[in-house]
Amino acid sequence: MTLVTDVSLRKILDSRGNPTVEADVHTERSGFGRAAAPSGASTGEYEAVERPPGEAIAAAREHAVPRLVGNAYAGDQREIDAILRGADGTDDFSEIGANSAVAISMAAAKAASDVLGAPLFQHLGGTFRGENFPIPLGNVVGGGEHAADATDIQEFLSAPVGAPSVSEAVFANAAVHAAVADLLEERGHPSGKGDEGAWAPSIDDEAAFEIVAEAVELVSDDVGFEIGFGLDVAAAEMYDADSETYEYESEGISRDTDEQIEYIADLVREYDLVYVEDPLDENDYDAFAELTEEVGDRTLVCGDDLFVTNTERLTEGIDRGAANSILVKPNQIGTLTEAFDAIELATENGYDAVVSHRSGETEDTTIAHLAVATDAPFIKTGAVGGERTAKLNELIRIADDAT
Ligand SMILES: C=C(OP(=O)(O)O)C(=O)O
Ligand SMILES: [Mg+2]
């Protein structure tokens, strides 16, 4: 293991044009790792705190960098991340910022893999990691917090569950994205794109369901393997706590919790949805449990804002039967160690892990390696767009190298 000799931090651009934190970690024996923090728009109430990058960088320089340099070993990820936690001193990284923390945590892992001369996924996963590759969930139509004047449901996700390889899955999602564009044009809804590169047409959810269902069927027939689709409802964003209703503004419909559960369950059955993320509010474990009881045997009910990559919240979900899958975003919790722990706890309890990008991204590819290292069955990282294809192409390269 090699000693950290330098940690530097800077502001770089993310895909929305906002500043974000990038970290460089140097070690003895010329190890070098660089990583950048992503950023959410539909962030969960219980996520670790992202501070304005300038403040996060200043605080990390003051509190974390001196504790790491000359003291920590890059290959000992748990030690690095414990130092970050100790330097921060809060429960939610509100001192150094989860953005500084996650950038340093990921950069340290990359520096360690650099010294070892092993790819990051192998350093993180070890020799005996599994041989599976994640199925990419690709966002093809979206709205919510990711695009104005578009669907209420945040993401309609192509899910090439029958793809024989990662590469074919990635290209299938791009083909569905293209097929959606053709169908939108044909129906008189030419469209721009939202934050994650999904089409963001000014149509209601019902019209989007029809178009996405048709697009996945067309592409599935063409490629000869099964492609399903799923959703990220991001329901916390449409939940009104005062009226206790879910507000579907484009359709002018309000649903109470029971109606929301039935609506989602009906959608799962009607469209054979393979995946439903955050179908209910982030505080409503009971409603999650009810929906999971109803459709959990036929689809993944995934907690994103519900669990925020946090093992305490996941433990509560497991105890209460809420969801059967967890979204894993390292910046929601602040360190790779804790993202790993969340995946491990999920897997031990029969919950599928879905490693995920954020709506604000950079060219950083760490999540592709994290998904492979942990044998995560799914990765959600868009379908097109440079900051999305950075991860997708990295997955193709990893699979190519590994076979
Ligand atoms: C990727 C997502 O969006 P954001 O990064 O805006 O939270 C999500 O909600 O799953
Ligand atoms: Mg989500």
Automatic annotation (TrEMBL):
Where is each Enolase N-terminal domain found?
4-124
Q: Tell me the residue numbers annotated for binding substrate.
A: H146, E155, E277, D304, S356, H357, R358, S359, K380
Gene Ontology MF terms in the entry = magnesium ion binding; phosphopyruvate hydratase activity
Catalytic activity entry: (2R)-2-phosphoglycerate = phosphoenolpyruvate + H2O
Q: What class of enzyme is it?
A: lyase
Active site, per annotation = E196, K329
User: Which residues are (2R)-2-phosphoglycerate-binding?
Assistant: Q154, K329, R358, S359, K380
Name the pathway: Carbohydrate degradation; glycolysis; pyruvate from D-glyceraldehyde 3-phosphate: step 4/5
Q: Which residues form the Enolase C-terminal TIM barrel domain?
A: 130-402
Q: Does the keyword Protein transport apply?
A: no
List, separated by semicolons, the cofactors it needs.
Mg(2+)
Enzyme Commission designation: 4.2.1.11
User: Where mainly located?
Assistant: cytoplasm
Q: How is the cofactor bound?
A: Mg(2+) is required for catalysis and for stabilizing the dimer. Binds a second Mg(2+) ion via substrate during catalysis.
> Where would you find this protein in the cell?
Cytoplasm; Secreted; Cell surface
Q: What does this protein do?
A: Catalyzes the reversible conversion of 2-phosphoglycerate (2-PG) into phosphoenolpyruvate (PEP). It is essential for the degradation of carbohydrates via glycolysis.
Which family does the similarity line name? Answer: Belongs to the enolase family.
User: Which HAMAP family does the UniProt record give?
Assistant: Enolase
- What protein is this chain from? Enolase
Identify the species of origin.
Answer: Saliphagus infecundisoli
